[in-house]
Amino acid sequence: MPKPPTRLPNRIRHLAHRIDTTTPPDRDRAVDALRAFAVLGVVLGHWLVTALVADGGRLHASSPLQHLPWLAPISWLFQTLAVFFLVGGHVATRSYTTAQANGTPYHRWLKSRLSRLFKPVAAVLTLWTIATTALLLSGTDFTTVHTLAKLALSPLWFLVVFAALTAATPLVARLNPLWPLAVVLHVDLLRFGFGAAPGVGWVNLAAGWLVPYTLGAAWTRGELDHPRAGWVLLVGGTAATAGLIACAGYPASMVGVPGTSVSNLDPPTLAAVTFGLAQCGLALLLRERLRHAMRRPLAWAAVAFVNLSAMTIFLWHQTALMATTATGLLFGHLPGLHTPPDQLTWVAARLMWLPVFALALAVCWTAFHTYERTGGRRNPSRIVRTHRSSDRATPIGGRRV
User: Fold this and answer.
1) Rounded to whole angstroms, how far apart are CA atoms 350 and 336?
2) How many Å apart are CA 153 and CA 321, to the nearest integer?
3) Torsion of CA 51, 56, 57, 58, to 10 degrees
4) CB 173 within 8 A of CB 216
5) Residue 242: pLDDT above 90?
6) What is the pLDDT of residues 256-303, one digit of tens each?
7) How remote is the C-alpha of 130 from its chain's centroid?
8) Most buried of the four, 144, 233, 333, 349, by CB within 10 Å?
9) How far apart are CA 41 and CA 51, in angstroms?
10) Is residue 300 within 8 Å of 16, Cβ to Cβ?
């Protein structure tokens, strides 16, 4: 008699077990878990607070935080970029140290680090160049096209900053995080205390994210191994952020809000940096718990998948939101998708749209995830043997892949 077909849950558990058993035992799974949580935090944050309101045939950007400012704590949960820079600094410093020990030239090391960052970008830029051209030629309102393209391509600013810090790793690997923190403090004093030109604030675009990046380098050097370091960052960062919001007038939202004069992220302010310090402290304190949790094959397989697809997920999640919103216009002005985000009913409706956004992102992933792989298209069944480490190709089964 023919064997009954294998149930999907059993196949998933079998694949998860294979991924678990073929992962090198010395791999720090907490690093991958923190990166996955940081990426998914950004995605969920954008999907929850980015609103596109249909008004007279046009789409314009809005946010529930603009109309319901008491929802600002939501931004504290999903603004996770500091954790991404923490992990990035840790991994890049470890990778560069290994490259030096192996005699790898700097330019070869840097090329290998940046290739996975920028190869998927070409696909995003190509698609949106075609899309914006087609929309303009079809007579779509310019404001709508500008709004869609700006939001869809907004993740690219992060890549530019991250690439610059990666390239500067040999120079900043031993930099004390207090130095860029002092730069951020003085820039904010010039901006808000002495009325300096707003352009001065863009110095913080590098200095602000250099703080968690250099914390990651300190992690690599073993300077943050003691739990005391995590507690100092968590408690100190939390207290400083609360004081800046309550006493110095910094915005409570840790993401940009349309219509406000000051944004904590555009460019980064001292409040955003101290908030990032608290996040980094919490991340460091959770390392052991995450290592323990990642011993579960299903949890580790999910984290491994997100890490394999991190750039695709990050670059295309806004496109998934834009595509769903634009397609939804065919059915009228839908609650939570095209209506003003000025009531809690909008929030409830937006939560119901999250699975649709995820489905649209899955379609984007299916179409474009191969651009994230070095060497072109691959058989998905080889995911176990092509799970790359954060800083080098992972030896699987006694060979390097």
Assistant:
1) 4
2) 12
3) -40
4) no
5) yes
6) 888 888 899 989 999 999 999 999 999 999 999 999 999 999 999 999
7) 26
8) 233
9) 17
10) yes
For 353-356, the CB contacts below 8 A with 24+ separation are 353/47, 353/324, 354/44, 354/47, 354/48, 356/324
Instruction: Output the average pLDDT for the chain.
Output: 88
User: How would you label 238-264 residue by residue, b for 16+ Cβ within 10 Å and e otherwise?
Assistant: bebbeebbeeeebbbbbbbbeeeebbb
* Domain range list for the chain: 43-400
Assess whether pLDDT exceeds 80 at residue 251. yes
Q: Please tell me the number of Cα atoms within 13 Å of 76 on its side-chain side.
A: 18
CB-based burial, 330-361: b 16+ in 10 Å, e otherwise: eeeebebbbbebeeeebbebbeebeeebeebb
Asked if 61 contacts 52 with a C-beta cutoff of 8 angstroms, the reply is yes
| Paired sense of beta strands 399-400 and 395-396, if any | antiparallel
Per-residue pLDDT tens for 14-47? 888 898 888 888 899 999 999 999 999 999 999 9
Write down the pLDDT at residue 117: 80
pLDDT score at 393? 37
At residue 394, does pLDDT exceed 50? Answer: no
Per-residue model confidence (pLDDT) at position 154:
87
Q: Which two tokens stand for residue 264?
A: 């904590």
pLDDT at 390: 43
Identify the pLDDT of residue 371.
Answer: 83
Q: How confident is the model at residue 396 (pLDDT cuts 50, 70, 90)?
A: very low
Dihedral sign for Cα atoms in the order 352, 356, 357, 359: positive
| Residue at token pair 């590098």 | 206
Query: What is the structure's pLDDT at 374?
Result: 53
* Alpha-carbon span 278 to 235, nearest angstrom: 7
- The residue among 143 and 374 whose pLDDT is bigger is 143
Distances (CA, A) of 153 to 18, 59, 105, 125, 240: 36, 16, 33, 8, 32
